[in-house]
């Protein structure tokens, strides 16, 4: 059976009462007598007392975070992902950025040449000879995103384009050019930045800001949260974005770093333990603001080309103070 002390410690931190702890031990293989003996020992165990105090502190913190969710639901439009057309920067930063709320944005990049130019043939002609870093063999393991460093490979852009053309409309999550591959791709794909333009809510640095994404229909980015605010801009194809509020971290099964054990299928059944799930779809020329800490799951509904940005015209340093050991 599992380690008794570890089971008890986890139960205490989860706020389990004596009956729940006893059931947990018996289900793990302990005899009822053994379970009763271990629970009796807790009365004089200083470590158990400390864990109980920590559990109460966590419960208080979770209650406080829950207030934000309840209050967000009191907004006139409720807890949703609204759509706003080309907002004034001051309004965007006040209503969404500072409020830690998502928003779908239209009209923000209508002036980009990329919206008309970027397709596979254009990419082939413009940067097809360049060597590009990608993630591949993603379907070979369940934790492909957590272990993404092992899935890196550098190939000519022509090879990626050929694979995308061969797939056509067939879904695949096996290969993807993502922001993680940026250190190589910002140089090799520099010519593509000529087709972009300024974005009113961003602060340009003059150094090819942003991250290039390219993949087939069916690419998935599992539930996670970022350590900065992000702007995801869709150039070609559509992406479905599912989101869960930042304050619902306690219900997102955050097992390591910024990753969640949740899947969209969890919401297929009614469960009061589930946090609210928000959904929207962005298409060419549309963008979505992904606030710091908000959990999001992204699925490509078509062959997809996107750009993402973190260089907002506001403070976006939230990495400072992030726990150095994030094994939960």
UniProtKB/TrEMBL annotation:
It comes from the Bacteria. It comes from Sphingomicrobium sediminis. It holds the Pfam family Cupin_8. Residues 181-326 form the JmjC domain. SUPFAM superfamilies: Clavaminate synthase-like. This is Cupin-like domain-containing protein. PANTHER family: HYPOXIA-INDUCIBLE FACTOR 1 ALPHA INHIBITOR-RELATED (PTHR12461), HYPOXIA-INDUCIBLE FACTOR 1-ALPHA INHIBITOR (PTHR12461:SF105). InterPro entries: Cupin_8 (IPR041667), JmjC_dom (IPR003347).
